[in-house]
Amino acid sequence: MTVRSVVAVVVVVGVAYCALMVGAAAAISWVIAPRVYSVDPTVEQQVMKDLEPWSDEVMAIEGPPGTTLNLDAGVVGCLYDDSTQTAYQPNAGIYWQGPYDPLAAENGPGRVARSEFGLLVDRLEALGWRVGAEGLVEGADALGPSRMEAVLTRGSGDDLVRLELTTYGWEYGAVLTLPHAPQACRVDVEWP
Question: Which of 30, 67, 107, 169 makes an SS bond possible with 98, Cβ 3.0 to 4.6 Å?
């Protein structure tokens, strides 16, 4: 091995080591860089206003037998989850609460819950909602049990409204979003 090849190997290893250190420093900076959460109140209020009639329509339908409409149902503004540093856009949540069913929690929604879920989807279709997807989603474990899900839409283009309907067998939830609405809130990384 010549001196020239030894020098070349040392240079290549040195450059690779420097690149590794720079990459590690950048990754650490990304993780520890402060996040800035910002909300555009004008856009937030407009999106919430646009969601209101859809939320009212879904809340007005008859819920599954034995359930009651949760008082927290309705439109909410931007939310920020500090643990995941995620911003959530305004949405409307409608929840019908029934008695807890430990069997459903373990085995997924039973036949009655599936039937009631189907009737809820039928009621929404009668109002003009279109079903994009519907079915049983197998759960992985007790933290994520099996559930029935349906995705329905109304309108088109920029006026599209999306409704995600879910049941685990004892509660039924509907979340309304406007996929094409302007972003009312966001999280930016503030580099040092």
Answer: 67
Q: Indicate the helix (H) or strand (E) that contains 4.
A: helix 3-32
Prediction pTM value: 0.75
For Cα atoms 136, 166, 170, give the angle at the middle one, nearest 5 degrees: 95
Distance (Å, whole) CA 170 – CA 146: 12
How many residues are given for the chain? 192
For residue 80, count CB atoms less than 10 angstroms from its CB and return exposed for 0-12, middle for 13-18, buried for 19 or more.
middle
Q: How far apart are CA 74 and CA 81, in angstroms?
A: 19
> What is the pLDDT at residue 107?
77
Residue ranges in the chain whose pLDDT is less than 50 = 24-27, 29-30
User: Is residue 147 within 8 Å of residue 139, measured between CB atoms?
Assistant: yes
Q: Please tell me the predicted confidence (pLDDT) of residue 21.
A: 56
Instruction: In whole angstroms, give the CA distance from residue 131 to residue 125.
Output: 7
Question: CB under 8 Å, gap of 24 or more: what pairs does 45-48 form?
Answer: 45/77, 46/182, 47/89, 47/90, 47/178, 47/181, 47/182, 47/184, 48/75, 48/76, 48/77, 48/90
- Dihedral sign, CA of 148, 49, 80, 178? positive
